[in-house]
Amino acid sequence: MPTQQALTLIPLKVVLLLALLTITTFAQAQTWVITDQTHPITSPGPARIILLDQQQHLESELSRALPSDPHQAAAIIQSRLNSPSGKRLQAELAKAQQDLTDA
Asked: Is 43 exposed, middle or buried (0-12, 13-18, 19+ CB in 10 A)?
């Protein structure tokens, strides 16, 4: 732990710079809106919107109209995941999972 004498030797410019960096960090705080699809918001402004049910919605989209045979269903899911829209869906799923973790 620094001594009192060592603390008084810190130049004022350094202290002011650290204070400015701290204020800047707090000023860049982000607003989060946590909701679900049944309670949409109208105008969040510059806020991060986290939908608690987004992962469930995306998984339902992925498994839409699957046959009851598990082998056929697995083949269709693989085909969907390998398509361009499937790649987009995977990225959206990863984001939805991160959103849930953050919330």
From this structure: exposed
Could you please report the per-residue DSSP string of 27-76?
Answer: HT--EEEEE-TTS--S---SEEEEETTHHHHHHHHHTTT--SSHHHHHHH
Structure tokens that stand for 102 in this block: 């953050």
d(CA 50, CA 53): 9
Q: Is the pTM of this model over 0.70?
A: no
Express each pLDDT in 46-66 by its tens digit: 888 899 999 999 999 999 999
Helix axes 54-62, 70-82, angle to 10 degrees: 110
Q: The tokens of 70 are what? A: 């598990």
